[in-house]
Write a structure and sequence with these properties.
This protein is an alpha+beta fold and 324 residues long. It is built from nine helices and six strands, in the order E-H-E-H-H-H-E-E-E-E-H-H-H-H-H. Strand 5 and strand 6 form a beta hairpin. It is rod-shaped and about 120 Å long. The N and C termini lie far apart (70 Å). 27% of the residues are buried.
């Protein structure tokens, strides 16, 4: 889909295919068709990169200047507020007169700027729209990181501030720890996605500001510098979140290890307590002819008492040593 902005009279549709009206400052391509791509290339005199080209990780592929036109690409977050966000490539082709954007998924930040451009007089040039897009993407990235931070705080409270004296079923406890581990891992994946997007925004902001220094107005250079500083502070916050994710992963794994050790301790105590009674019962179950206890009137109660005592004494010993 092709959308044009500041095109007050639909002049793009009325003009010659090889011409671009002077009042158009932004052309937005959303999952474009081959015809739309060819139309923009012919009118704007630029080359529209493919999705594969926008996805390349080399800096030289993502940041280029051709004939005075700046070609930028970065991954952007789609569905950042959902439980399953994804990274999608986005391209920005910036010149003094025109901004062309290429994306392959709907983005709330682009929709917000598209609504503003109809009423905001500051968005009257290509660099103004580009700056507004960068600011909006950083704002939404900050919202995503704040949301992830709140989720991590909730997980941390559930892990460390539970009642340690409350009786818990071992199976249910292990299942809860597994669910917590999965939740922390999911948050870690989302933090990583947000980091990739923010790093890309910071990179293209610096590059555009440096290359376009000759024709970017001072007020927009200041705003782009503020965007770069915001990205740096958000990267610091993201590093803190990543460290907390790693800490919670280690903590949950530690609790799982403790739960397993407690289970093995119970099994060990049961096996140790059961050995002496088994030994006593085995001895008196041999029925040799010269076993004097077989002729005792109280032989049977005596045998039961020895079995019970041999089971109780290890329990008392474990209790005294603090192992139980």
């Amino acid at each position: 889909m092709l959308s044009t902005y500041r095109d007050t009279s639909e002049s793009v549709r009325q003009s010659h295919p090889s011409e671009l009206p002077a009042d158009v400052i932004w052309m937005d391509l959303l999952d474009p068709t081959a015809e739309e791509t060819a139309s923009v290339e012919g009118r704007a005199g630029i080359r529209i990169p493919s999705a594969h080209a926008l996805s390349e990780v080399e800096v030289s592929s993502r940041l280029r200047v051709e004939h005075g036109v700046i070609y930028l690409s970065t991954p952007v977050v789609a569905g950042g507020q959902t439980a399953e966000p994804t990274l999608s490539p986005a391209g920005f082709i910036l010149s003094e007169r025109l901004l062309v954007t290429i994306r392959f998924t709907p983005l709330a930040s682009f929709d917000a700027v598209a609504r503003r451009i109809r009423t905001d007089e500051e968005l009257c040039c290509s660099i103004g729209v580009f700056t507004a897009l960068m600011e909006e993407m950083v704002d939404r990235g900050a919202d995503v990181l704040e949301h992830l931070g709140a989720e991590l705080d909730a997980v941390s409270r559930s892990v460390f501030r539970g009642d340690p004296n409350a009786a818990r079923h071992p199976v249910r406890s292990n299942e809860a720890l597994r669910l917590t581990l999965s939740r922390v891992g999911n948050i870690g994946d989302r933090v990583s996605i947000a980091r990739d997007a923010l790093l890309g925004i910071g990179r293209i902001t610096h590059f555009a500001s440096d290359i376009g220094q000759g024709w970017i107005p001072p007020e927009f250079r200041v705003r782009l510098g503020a965007v770069a500083k915001d990205v740096q502070s958000l990267n610091d916050f993201e590093t803190q979140l990543s460290n907390k994710v790693q800490f919670l992963l280690d903590a949950v794994l530690g609790f799982m290890t403790i739960e397993q050790n407690d289970l093995f301790k119970v099994l060990t105590i049961v096996s140790v307590v059961g050995i002496p009674p088994t030994l006593v019962a085995g001895i008196y179950g041999m029925n040799f002819k010269n076993m004097p206890e077989l002729n005792w009137a109280w032989g049977y109660p005596f045998g039961l008492a020895v079995i019970a005592l041999s089971a109780i004494l290890p329990l008392v010993w474990f209790k005294v040593r603090g192992w139980l």
